[in-house]
Amino acid sequence: MNRTIITVVGKDTVGIIAAVCTYLAEHNINILDISQTIVQEFFNMMMIVDISKYEGKFDEMAEQLRLIGDEKGVQVKCQREDIFDKMHRI
To answer: What's the CA gap between 26 and 24, in Å, rounded?
Structure first.
């Protein structure tokens, strides 16, 4: 399995989850776990996804999700699970 961490942060607006999840579904990226909260007007979502069936390059996926975030006024970041684990081990 090729797992990736996707985080989405910003002011809450209609359609953030739909836009991100639509992209994932269209590209055969499976959501393994998802958590989202809204604190006052601020939206925060973390997803663990399996990209083993994704046919593109990781950097292309990360850029496309970043652009979706830009359209919705939020920040979308992608990190490979192994790098995420190493960064948060300390």
So the answer is: 6
CATH fold for the domain made of 3-88: Alpha-Beta Plaits (3.30.70)
C-beta of residue 65 within 8 angstroms of C-beta of residue 6: yes
pLDDT of the chain, 90 residues: tens digit per residue: 699 999 999 999 999 999 999 999 999 999 999 999 999 999 999 999 999 999 999 999 999 999 999 999 999 999 997 665 556 665
CA separation, residue 29 to residues 33, 38, 53, 59, 65 (Å): 12, 24, 7, 14, 12
With H, G, I as helix, E, B as strand and everything else as coil, classify residue 17.
Answer: helix
Domain ranges of the chain: 3-88
Give this prediction's pTM.
0.88
What H or E segment, with its residue span, contains residue 36? strand 30-39
Interacting residues of 47 by C-beta distance below 8 A, sequence separation 6+: 5, 6, 7, 8, 20, 31, 33, 34, 35
